[in-house]
Write a structure and sequence with these properties.
The chain is α+β, with helices and mostly antiparallel strands and 415 residues long. Helices cover 35% and strands 23% of the residues. It is built from twelve helices and 13 strands. The strands form two sheets. Strands 1, 2, 3, 4, 5, 6, 7, 8, 9, 10 and 13 form an eleven-stranded mixed beta sheet that branches. Strands 11-12 form a two-stranded antiparallel ribbon. A hairpin with a 2-residue loop joins β1 and β2. The longest helix is centred in the C-terminal third of the chain and has 29 residues, at 296-324.
Length: 415
Amino acid sequence: MPFAQFIWALVVHALSAQGSLGLHLRAMTGVQVSDSAAIQRRAGLPWEWFEALFAQILRPLAQRSAHPESFYHGHRLLALDGSEWSLRNTASVTTGARPRHTNQHSSEAAFFKWRCAVLIEAGTHQPLAAARALPGLAHAEGELNIARRTLGGIARDEDTLLLADRLYGCGRFIADVGVAAGERCKVLLRVKQALKAKVIKKLSDGSALVEITVCVAGSNQVERKLEVREIRGWVSKEASAKDRSEVRLWSTLLDAKKHPAKELLALYTQRWEQELFFRELKSHASREHLLRAGSEQKAAAEYGALIIAAGLLAQQRVAAAQQVDLPVLRVSVSKISMAMEHLLPVLAVTGELITGKQRAAIIAKFMKHAAKEAVLPPRRKRSCQRGVRKPVCSWPRIHSRAYLNGACLYEVIVI
C-alpha cells in the first residue's frame, strides 16, 4: 500500500471513536490486511519519524487581519503545557521499568502514566510542536524537561508571546526560551508566590522591573541574573467580587506604557486555551485519558497520529470559521471531526470513479454544510470554584458544584 495512504488511515483512526486500525486501513486503501499486521506496521514508526514530520507540516494558521484573537500587539500568542495519558495494563506495560504514579497517601494509580507536552497557537488550537517522555526510564520524567523539547517549534523570524502556568515560572525556563526561540520570543508566565525577586524599579502602572536568578540546570548554583517585569493583581467575577484570587506574573514585555499591567492580567487568561486543547484531544477523540495502544512504543505512534489529526482539524476549523465569518473557537471541533471521519473514507472508496474537479466540489459542499452545523453559541462568562471532590491534596474540597456568572474583574496590586 502507498505510505501516504497508510498515514491517512492513521489519521482517520485517530479521528474515529470506534473501529480498529485494520478496519480503517482496509477502508482507506482497499488492501486486505489483518488488524494485528496493521498494529505492527504502526509500531514500526519511531517517534523520531513523527518529530521530523511535525517539523514539516505543523505551521501557524492565524493571520493578523482575520484572527486578531491570536495576536497581541503584533506578537503571535502561543501556549505551552503538559498532560498525562493512561496506558492499558498489558503485559508489555506492567513489566516495564516505569513506576506507577502515587499520591500523597502513597496509593498506586490504577494505570501507568505516560507524559507529553504540546506547544499550540492560541485562537486556533493548531499544534506547533509535541514531545513525549523518554522511554525506559526508571523514574517519571518531569513535565518541564519534556516541554523544553517543544521550544524548537517557536519561529525565530517573527514576534511571539508564550503563555504558561506556574510550573514554568522560573528564571531557568525563561533563559531556555531565549536560547531556543531567540530574542523575538517574549514570555508571560505565572509565578509561585514563594519565588524571590529583587525590585529594581517601580513602574507607573503598578508593576515593577525585578531581578531574578538563573540557576545551572539541576543545581542551585547561580549562573546569571535576568531582568523581567513583575505584575501582581486580583482576578474575580462580577457576581462575587469578594471571592478573588491573587495572580503573580513575570514577563519580558518591559514597556509599561505599551503593555499596561491590567491588560497583561486579562491577556493571561488565554492560557486556558491550552487546557481546552487537551480536552478536545482526549474527550472529543473518545480517548478519555486512556490510549488504546498496548505498549509504550505503540502509544508513541498513536499519540503522533493524534497530533497529526489535531493539526488537520485545526486547518478545517479555520476554513469553516471563514465560511461562517466567526472566530475559530466558535466552531465545534467535535462536529468538524465527525464530518472528517465520514468524508475521508468516502473519498478513499470512490478513488478513480470521480474526477479531481468532482472530488473538489464534493469536499467544498460537504465542508460548507459541516461549517453551518458546527457553529457554537457565544461562550458563557462564568467559572466554577477551584477544588477537588476527594481530599487527596491541599486543595479545598468541593461538596456541591457552583458556578459564578459575569465578566472577570482585574485589579492591579501596586508593588
